[in-house]
């Protein structure tokens, strides 16, 4: 997978540049240049035209955010941020994603050289996957979705709103108590945010989000979604309960199970059981337990990401009578998880990112004559 991939490694630490370069080289990736700061990184990208850049967050002269922004303007190239595991770096890392970085990889603490060696296969795989991203094609075309019109809640717990259908105005009614389970990985944070931004609060969804992301970053991720969407979203805690209009982001390094469901409210349980599909939290765990527990309308959504996590979960949701959606290849940063989901034969719709929010709404609305 890594054969032929050319990389620029940017880090202000000579030691870290050497460690990262050695790992990538051992994994079959050619390091064409190293950079000590963001300015050197930009120059190296323009000169060498690499397939991918590993970018440290904090560097002198020009930091990783500024360098990423410059690269996206002057010579668009997939960027993988390398971030220290701190709250401050979590904020900065998400800002880098806003500027165009594809994803991030957390630098280990403690004995760095030993830890990096332990994570070398994961780093090589992620760099290879990020290198394959077309940073121009996967950018959102603005994240707009069609206006579903004014919506009024009815006494029965559903909602109605005007929608243009075939040139004439019709009324739609939302089903009662729908639950949406979203799974994503590489390139996923921006995609999840876009979907959530475009979901109307009147749909009254309960939303469970599983993004492959380390501990310390999922809380910040939940805060971003909470700020940018109409839904009240927070990081999951053991025993957390949500109802309509609320969402939970699976906490880093913990599986999120749906423990019980009653009267439109669900309760979650967090565990540190063995990783599933080599990840924790795993999409399959949440989707499987949701399918087993929730008896109201259920939707499963798989967004961009490498690997096969979520494929079995989609199968379980479909078998339980739920609806299923996968992001299409053209707008996926990495068409791994969606592809595996589609290959199960249990996906109802394959949609570009800009159409997914509407696709979700279509599964939980009916026309009212």
TrEMBL record:
Residues 138-157 have a biased composition (Low complexity). Contains a C-terminal catalytic domain, and an N-terminal region which modulates catalytic activity. The active site is at 185, 212, 309. GO terms for molecular function: phosphorelay response regulator activity; protein-glutamate methylesterase activity; protein-glutamine glutaminase activity. Keywords: Chemotaxis, Cytoplasm, Hydrolase, Phosphoprotein. Residues 6-122 form the Response regulatory domain. Residues 173-367 form the CheB-type methylesterase domain. It comes from Haloarcula japonica (strain ATCC 49778 / DSM 6131 / JCM 7785 / NBRC 101032 / NCIMB 13157 / TR-1). Its main location: cytoplasm. This is Protein-glutamate methylesterase/protein-glutamine glutaminase. One of its GO terms (biological process) is chemotaxis. GO terms for cellular component: cytoplasm. InterPro entries: CheB-like, CheB_C, CheY-like_superfamily, Sig_transdc_resp-reg_Me-estase, Sig_transdc_resp-reg_receiver. Gene3D superfamilies: 3.40.50.2300, Methylesterase CheB, C-terminal domain. Coiled coil: none annotated. Its EC number is 3.1.1.61, 3.5.1.44.
């Amino acid at each position: 997978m890594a054969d032929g991939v050319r990389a620029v490694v940017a880090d202000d630490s000579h030691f870290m540049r050497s460690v990262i370069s050695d790992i990538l080289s051992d994994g079959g990736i050619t390091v064409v240049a190293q950079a000590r700061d963001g300015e050197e990184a930009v120059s190296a990208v323009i000169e060498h035209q690499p397939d991918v850049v590993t970018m440290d967050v904090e560097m002198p002269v020009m930091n990783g955010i500024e360098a990423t922004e410059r690269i996206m303007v002057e010579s668009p190239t997939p960027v993988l941020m390398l971030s220290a595991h701190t709250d401050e770096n979590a904020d900065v890392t998400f800002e880098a994603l806003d500027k165009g970085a594809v994803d991030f990889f957390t630098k280990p603490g403690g004995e760095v050289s030993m830890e990096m060696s332990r994570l070398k296969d994961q780093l090589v795989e992620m760099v290879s996957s990020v290198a394959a991203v077309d940073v121009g094609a996967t950018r959102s075309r603005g994240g707009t979705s069609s206006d579903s019109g004014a919506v009024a809640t009815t006494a029965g717990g559903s909602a109605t709103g005007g929608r243009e259908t075939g040139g004439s105005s019709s009324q739609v009614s939302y089903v009662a108590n729908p639950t949406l389970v979203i799974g994503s990985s590489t390139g996923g944070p921006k995609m999840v945010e876009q979907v959530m931004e475009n979901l109307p609060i009147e749909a009254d969804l309960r939303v469970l989000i599983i993004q492959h992301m380390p501990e310390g970053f999922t809380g910040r991720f939940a805060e971003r979604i909470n700020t940018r969407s109409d839904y009240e979203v927070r990081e999951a805690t053991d025993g957390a309960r949500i109802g309509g209009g609320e969402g939970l982001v699976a906490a880093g390094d913990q599986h999120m199970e749906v423990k019980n469901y009653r009267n439109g409210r669900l309760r979650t349980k967090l565990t540190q059981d063995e990783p599933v599909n080599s990840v924790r939290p795993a999409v399959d765990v949440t989707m499987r337990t949701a399918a087993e527990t929730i008896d109201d309308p259920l939707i499963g959504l798989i967004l961009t990401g490498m690997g096969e996590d979520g494929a079995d979960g989609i199968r379980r949701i479909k078998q339980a009578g739920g609806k299923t959606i996968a992001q299409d290849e053209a707008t996926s940063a990495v068409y791994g998880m969606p592809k595996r989901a589609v290959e199960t034969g249990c996906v109802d719709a394959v949609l570009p990112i800009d159409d997914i929010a509407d696709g979700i709404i279509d599964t939980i609305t009916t026309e009212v004559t």
